[in-house]
Amino acid sequence: MSTLLTGGTSQIGLALAKRLKAAGRDVIFGTRSPSKVPSGYKHVLLDWSDPSTFANAFNTPDRIENLYILPPPSTLGQLDITKPFIDLAIEKGVKKFALLSATNTAKGGFGPGAIHGYLDSTGVDYFVLKPTWFTENLFNGHAYSIKAQGEIITSVPTGRISFISVEDIAQAAFDYFEHGSDFKDKYILGPEPLTYNEVAQILTEVIGRPITHKVVSTEEQQARYSSFGLPLEYAELLASEEAKSEKGGDAAFLAAENKFVGTFTVRAVLENNKSFWSS
Fold first, then answer.
1. pLDDT for the residue 269
2. Burial class of residue 151 (count of CB atoms within 10 Å of its CB; 0-12, 13-18, 19+)
3. Are strands 2-6 and 64-69 parallel, antiparallel or unpaired?
4. What's this model's pTM, rounded to 2 decimal places?
5. Cβ of 131: how many Cβ atoms within 10 Å?
6. Cβ partners under 8 Å of residue 192, min gap 6
7. Closest CA to 68 of 48, 86, 92, 49
8. CA–CA dist 7, 166 (Å, integer)
9. What is the Cα–Cα distance from 187 to 249, expressed in whole angstroms?
10. Nearest Cα to 259, choosing from 194, 189, 210?
11. Per-residue pLDDT tens for 197-250?
């Protein structure tokens, strides 16, 4: 029995693969970038933009029992793209489906919310991971302004966010594949709610140079995201979702029964990747 990881060479995919392999499970990476697959793992070509690749994973001797779905990025029409693959997976006997979504994304809503709704309608065994903002965004979307200007730039002046590590998200997915879940979805949250001002202070202490938090308007943040090359509608969505963090932060998610609280603090993630800031 094998687990197929779509977007397997993503940070979550790699962390999940390590956990599955350590537990003696077979793992297959579904990826459009085979060169990024770590040694010792199987892989098949899988490209969301090319439906002709969808059958590749099921044309091998391996029987796929579990499927991790990382939806195609930067588009809101994710169900239209993924539905044929999900249907094929069901036809081929996949038993468990884990979907990466987000805290504010409702079942049946935009993007991964539509996939969530579709999985629910099929009657399959599924689990939706709904993480809050990733700690690792500090090394990706925020990295340039931190390195070049010494600033984290957001539209969230004081909202508290339970920043989550990709390692904890992978653990939640692993737990579902191994043990199932009493809930069809869970909010995936970090162990401590922090403001961006507090994150900037932790960065200052870890890096050893001053890092500040610069607050901009939602419109300014949208323009920044567009300048990164994101499609306009996706930049609008991302800026809008970010702004919601100011209105109560993650308080409602922390109060929910269906939550998974991780163990990796922001400081721990930054300390573990300290060398990134000197490169």
1. 97
2. middle
3. parallel
4. 0.95
5. 26
6. 162, 265, 266
7. 86
8. 14
9. 13
10. 189
11. 999 999 999 999 999 999 999 999 999 989 888 888 888 988 988 888 988 768
